[in-house]
Amino acid sequence: MIYPYINLNGKTAEAVPYYASVFNIPHHHILTFGQAGNPGFAVPAGFENKAMFSFLDIDQTRVMFCDHFPGITSKSGATISLNIITSQENIDAWFPRLAMDGKVGMPLQKTMWSKYYGSVVDKFGIVWQFSINEE
């Protein structure tokens, strides 16, 4: 089993409740570096309230989240996209919520590889692809 792990630049506290709302997930928890006790390494001053770990179970897949540790450079969403293969009902509920503050890459439509497909880049720069792969 592989779980995607999204690293955000200090935005996890905003992103996790946002995604919980988009995907109708009633409960979520974010473990901060300060709550972790002694993680075995020095936590920089001012970083205690940043997210060390969180997760959401989205349509039977665990998606994990954390904030980038100071000194680690990357660009959120630049190297991954999440492809959710699910029902049209879920797609019709989730796609517009992510698109509301994001940007549609490909509108929902029939394609040669899926009877219903679309992609959106959300407000955090994460690419979400939705499809139905059944006939």
Description:
- The protein has two helices and eight strands.
- A four-stranded mixed sheet has the order 1-4-3-2, covered by helices on one side.
- The protein has two domains: 63 residues, 2,3-Dihydroxybiphenyl 1,2-Dioxygenase, domain 1; 52 residues, Signal recognition particle alu RNA binding heterodimer, srp9/1 (2-Layer Sandwich), CATH 3.30.720.110.
- Helices cover 18% and strands 34% of the residues.
- With 135 residues, the chain is α/β, with parallel strands linked by helices.
CATH superfamily of the largest domain: 2,3-Dihydroxybiphenyl 1,2-Dioxygenase, domain 1
| Content-based structural category | alpha/beta
Q: Please summarize the sheet with the most strands.
A: 4 strands, mixed
Q: Which percent bin holds the helix content?
A: 10-25%
Average pLDDT taken over every residue: 87
Strands of the biggest beta sheet: in what spatial order? 1-4-3-2
What is the strand and helix layout of this fold?
Blueprint: E1 5-8, H1 12-22, E2 30-32, E3 51-58, E4 61-67, E5 81-85, H2 88-100, E6 103-109, E7 116-121, E8 127-132
Parallel strand pairs: 1-4, 5-8
Antiparallel strand pairs: 2-3, 3-4, 6-7, 7-8
Summarize the structure.
With 135 residues, the chain is α/β, with parallel strands linked by helices.
Quickly list its features:
2 domains, 8 strands, four-stranded mixed β-sheet, alpha/beta, 2 helices, 18% helix, Signal recognition particle alu RNA binding heterodimer, srp9/1, 135 residues, 2,3-Dihydroxybiphenyl 1,2-Dioxygenase, domain 1
